[in-house]
DNA sequence: GATTGTATGATTGTATACAATTATACGAGG
DNA sequence: CCTCGTATAATTGTATACAATCATACAATC
């Protein structure tokens, strides 16, 4: 979905702005002038407008008619809320995955975990970017395996939303190890076609990530 | 939020198209040409483009680069999935509302229910539009009372999404009565500051609506 | 007859021009 | 000194113009 995003200027501006907002480059209440943003990115106002309207829908920007677009940003409470919601929905997702997953998808999950474990074993210290990407990949496959485009859609959105926070969570090597172990347990439950167990484990997994985040001051 | 929607042409086109897609006026895979839509609504391509990009983000439209925008539509399974998700999240919402709600919001909830009960008592047969609106109002207040803009946002989205289905559910007078009774029970639990009970009741409430929908062939 | 290449038309992508609205500066009046 | 009103500038809202891409029709070739 949203394959056009990489192709059109509007899509690229959207992605760039979202990244910059979530990473904190644009701060709360910053004004996003169409002309200014356009000049910075070397495009005209039209694609910028499209992007701003989309960001408004995602809740990252507030548009006041005839006035302008202002960064909404996300508070620590927002992140906490998202993790509570995700905890429930990832549970539901794992349950459905346990009911619908294909052999091919099982293999993909296995591969993602194996690669993660491999990364952690490296003596040179693990690559944070890689681990984050593999974590995202594991969850993305799970979303797909739920067989619900609706659930997949909303979980993907939330996942992107807390991207910035996630990176800071996984830098803790201890947490990274536990996270991968939990992933393996979830996969085990799904392989065993045990929806109840899968749901509970996925549930707890997200709660653990959340608790770890809290320890880091979020 | 999204107050600009009523003000700008782009916002109005967005709402109109969403309504027409959800109501079934535009069917699956229908092509939405910018020029054609624009002429039908008496606006230029620019606001139509903005609307289409937003609809793409909501998953109601699929955009293929340099080709066009096509209606994605929502299947019965999508609706079923949404109700499962909503069931959980409305539960969470009711729980948080029981913890955070203000006196003013309690009054608003009371008022919405009283108006609903009044509508149902009318001998002339109840007004479907009114009942639907009041149902929406009850839930909207609850979303607000959760104190979580994130949860409120996602629940509002889903609520709009199944709007078409909701209307067909509430035409059943029997279901409408039970629905209002359940609303009153939820309010009771929240007033008693009983989060567990509120969560469970809200949970079941949505499941009941879902079951009723199923009986009607959804 | 099927297939491929090309020309033409239609549609989307982007930029720009113009209109409408709002913010700002400044002076008049109290 | 403060308030209000007006003029001007800046910004957003919308429409249109132009460029790029894609679909279609038709002819040439095998």
Order of helices and strands of chain A: HEHHEEHHHHHHH
Strand order in the largest sheet of chain A:
1-3-2
Mean pLDDT of chain A: 91
Helical amount of chain A: over 70%
Q: What multimeric state do the chains show?
A: homodimer
Total helical elements of chain A = 10
For the terminal residues of chain A, how far apart are their CA atoms? Answer: 31 Å
Radius of gyration of chain A: 19 Å
Strands of chain A, total number = 3
Structural class of chain A: mainly alpha
Strand content of chain A: under 5%
Overall geometric form of chain A: elongated
Uncertain stretches of 5 or more adjacent residues of chain A: none
The largest β sheet of chain A comes out as: 3 strands, antiparallel
Q: Name the largest protein-protein interface in this structure.
A: A-B, 36 and 36 residues
Please name the defining characteristics of this protein.
10 helices; DNA-binding; mainly alpha; 218 residues; homodimer
């Amino acid at each position: 979905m949203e394959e056009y995003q990489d192709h059109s200027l509007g899509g690229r501006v959207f992605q760039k702005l979202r990244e910059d907002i979530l990473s904190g480059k644009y701060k709360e209440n910053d004004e996003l002038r169409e002309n200014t943003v356009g000049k910075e990115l070397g495009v005209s106002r039209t694609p910028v407008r499209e992007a701003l309207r989309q960001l408004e829908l995602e809740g990252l920007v507030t548009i006041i008619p005839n006035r302008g677009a202002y960064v909404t940003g996300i508070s620590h409470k927002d992140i906490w809320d998202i993790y509570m919601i995700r905890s429930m929905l990832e549970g539901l997702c794992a349950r459905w995955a346990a009911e619908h997953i294909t052999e091919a998808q099982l293999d993909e999950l296995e591969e993602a975990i194996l690669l993660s474990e491999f990364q952690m074993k490296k003596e040179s210290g693990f690559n944070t970017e890689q681990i984050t990407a593999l974590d995202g990949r594991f969850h993305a496959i799970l979303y797909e395996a739920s067989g619900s485009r609706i659930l997949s859609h909303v979980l993907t959105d939330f996942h992107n939303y807390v991207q910035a926070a996630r990176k800071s969570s996984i830098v803790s090597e201890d947490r990274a190890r536990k996270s991968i172990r939990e992933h393996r347990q979830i996969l085990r439950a799904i392989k065993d076609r045990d929806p109840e167990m899968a749901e509970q484990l996925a549930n707890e997994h997200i709660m653990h990530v959340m608790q770890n985040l809290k320890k880091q001051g979020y």
